[in-house]
Amino acid sequence: KVFPVRVNGEAVRLGGGLLLTSLQALGVRLPFICWHPDIIDSGGRCRACSVVVDGKMKPACTTYVREGMIIDTKSELVRSLREAAMAVDPKFKSETRLGSAAEILALRPSSKEGTVHPRTRYVIRQPELCNHCNLCVQMCRGVQGVAAIGELRDGGTDAELSATEVKGFHGTPLPQTECVNCGQCINVCPTGALREASALDVVREAMRDPTRPKVIQFAPAVRVALAEEFGKAPGEQSLTREMVAAARLLGDNVHVFDTNFSADLTIIEEANELLERIRRSLTGEKRYGPDDIHEALPQITSCSPGWVTFVEKNFHDLLPNVSSCKSPMQMAGALTKQYWARKHGVDPNDVVSIAVMPCVAKKYEADRPEFSTDGIPHVDAVLTTREYAELLRTHDVDPTALDPTSKLAEFDRPFGIASGAGLIFGATGGVMEAALRTAYEVVTGRPVPFAKLDVQPVRGMQGVKAAAVKLENVSREWKFLEGVEVKVAVAHGLSNARKLCEEIRLANHHGLPPPYHFVEVMCCPGGCLGGGGQPKPTSMDIKKERAKLIYKEDRDLPLRKSHENPAIKELYRDFLHEPMGHASHELLHTTYSA
Ligand code: HC1
After folding, report:
1. Which of 51, 205, 272, 567 has the most CB within a 10 Å radius?
2. Predicted-complex ipTM score
């Protein structure tokens, strides 16, 4: 529905809904800070988007369009009203200014270190930059359903409001709360009061030393968002090869691996683990040794570290369901230090293993003791997409301007050879789709029964997705699976994950058959492409654009199934020998406990 109104003296027709978004659609840009398109109840706090409607000042983010409105968005009166509104909080005024949202979002935190809790250096608070927009609290509680943080205040005076701090409820340090380090609070923070602990110093120091091999791996979701840091619109440009070329300009002795390669490897290990769990559930076979995998169904993915922490803190009873596979980042890190380095006669201690990830929780994952061999961590430093962009900017490298056809732009071999199945890990449903492409074909000898390999039921931004695939005419080796209808579910964002966990827990509690065989959970809404370390701003519309890029790139790749990746086949021939075998068990699998 559209409404005839007047905007700055001009007669126009405005779409219904929020005045802020309707004006945006008309091309009228207003500054806003405390409003976010994905967060219900956001807005109305900072008044940066104030306009005058029918002679009265209104925040555009809480006002709805109606017929006949007379709207003034840019007169001197509006400007002075906005300034007065923003002056209420002196901290707010000193750290922000009127301008476009993009300008406000570009404000960089000061060099002064914020409050860092000694046991978590992953989410850092710098309270003096906080403008009390409350988006972080709403994101944590309303969207993620975690509620680790809240606003602490003692009273309602201006001075008391200015002293309000976002922290764990009752002042509890973050590590002792339900916080899972997802970084979604950082992603919606408009002023830089919340940010990730930086690993840039570690990486810069390593880059200055040409004698040390630096191995950089890039997560699937980084390539489809990085261009946004360099002025491109969401979905405009994927930088798969350009980000590789850029990495080689940062120093000498730099090797570039693709996390998509180890995502393919994860699929081989995880699909075999799943089939083994199903086999045991059908045959009633019990555990047979200390190295054994769990037998609980459904098997639940383990590659998203915020999700793993969420299970550990909230659903301890479901830990046996979590796949024993390490995440693709850790598989790549383990192979880097314990296979690639040794094969090249390099001491694993000398290699600097760097991961560029869309994720803040990956920093925490890298520090977990499970992910090391003889005390040598698989990954030494994790940079978010934002940090990688910052690193490039300080080297004066703009990846959008690099030549994707140059030799520099090629990943190292063999760990740079990857399939589209590995790439789609970056979108919600991608791990499931990749696993189905492989598991179905391995068991039946035929491609998964979806047009052009696109498993549509697990794609898209619906919070919980479910699908079923019947296994028929299976090959002799897998006879026990004949006729089994494999049920799968996908959740992204922790509120949705909680719903699935409760469904599974309820079935367990009542002794009912598990509702699914395989479940994918990604901590961040939209999957990794919506990770807490991605460019700001991030919204559902922006995530959809990033997802389109991922699926387009997958569709265009000659290799789209993990089990057809020749580099993976070679790795099994030369080193791992068999999925879930001894070498895999040593390097690629783990278990979790709270
Ligand atoms: Fe992810 Fe994963 S998909 S967890 O979202 O399994 O971070 O992109 O790298 O490890 O591959 C993140 C993305 C990423 C891992 C893979």
Report:
1. 51
2. 0.94
